[in-house]
User: Fold CDP-diacylglycerol--serine O-phosphatidyltransferase from Hymenobacter persicinus.
Amino acid sequence: MKNHLPNAVTCLNLFAGCLALCNVFAGHLETAAYLVGLAAAFDFADGLLARALHASSPIGKDLDSLADMVSFGVVPGAILYHLLGQSTAGMPTWLPYAAFIVTVFSALRLAKFNNDTRQTDSFIGLPTPACTLVVASLPLILAHDTFNLTSAILNPWVLLGLTLLLSGLLVAEIPLFALKFKNLSWTDNSLRFVFLLLAVALLLVLGAAAIPLIVLLYVLLSVVRPAFG
Assistant:
């Protein structure tokens, strides 16, 4: 039974992603964003369970990638497509379809991860959940826009630029640390603790608007990681 528990949680990730996709189709982007967060929680939990129960398997790895392709590949593309559709008045009619560049690069990222032996304890390129959380934060920011960001977010060139930036980061040869704690020692995990503390502070101050900044912080801290030893 214990060998199937991580896979069951992975399936919950997939199910949440499917529900998010349905809500995007229905125009309920805020609900879809919360379901993306739920999918990300399940994605984090299945890895914890697999390590705790020593239940890792090739099937589990493949299932995780297939679930991630829906929740963190198709869903962000669909959200960006919907947002671009709202913002492209007077623009080329094909422009919203460019949103699915993120989906294509998410597939490349997942295939690369599954076959890259360098990514056992860290990542090379932005993980697909982090990319998707940035995209999913946009409907939340629009729904609770206390910083007057709506006009910027719904600018088609901003959305297209974000699409290309995230797509590039997914496959970039940038080493990024993983949030995997083997112990609670400050010496061994100082970078992770600093990141989590700053992330919580940003969330408390900025709410959903903090999410893109947290992902940017994650990339920047990974770049300066040697300073933390």
The mean pLDDT is 92.
